Amino acid sequence: MAKYFDVHPENPQQRVLGNVADLVRSGALVAYPTDSCFALGCQLGNRDGLSRIRSIRHLDDHHHFTLVCQNFAQLGQFVHIDNNVFRAIKAATPGSYTFILPATTEVPRQLLHPKKRTVGVRIPDHVVTQALLAELGEPLLSSTLLLPGEDEPMTQGWEIKERLDHVVDAVIDSGDCGTEPTTVIDFSSGSAEIVRRGAGDTTRFE
Hints:
This protein is an alpha/beta fold. Helix content is 26%, strand content 21%. It has helices spanning 14-25, 47-57, 72-75, 83-91, 127-136, 157-163; strands at residues 3-6, 30-32, 39-43, 66-68, 97-102, 118-122, 140-144, 170-173, 183-186, 193-196.
């Protein structure tokens, strides 16, 4: 059964998130809120967690996983960014955007797009997510919590706990965080290509 953590949305309890971070380090798969919608997350090198996310969401090998980072210093370890792209991303973060960029050797091979050698990265604008990332001290390997055959992600922590109780290890609930996933911008060619329009305003990239 999944552990359920009720976290204050504006003043998240450090002790509680410290417990979640310990679970992640021990191999747990967690459902957690972001500034767009709930996501599934695990530690970067957690092969079992990655496999479980693929299984829950019925994902193929071409799915772009996302590294959810606390800040730019962390993000820069995992992707190659030139000056122009850096400025464009810097102006839009933190926020509800996922950026697809060429990966560095820090990113495990199984996370990369098989042909492009790219990975998704984002810096969320969400108090609880940021607090969890601060406790963890590293990115979360993540994917939107959108179940197969459903048009919108689940928005209620209790519902996620009820439906995914035997396939995730923990659920963080800090209230409704919406149903619209991130806007996805592909910068792998050096210029912005809008892959998915979502919660983030696309005007600056058009």
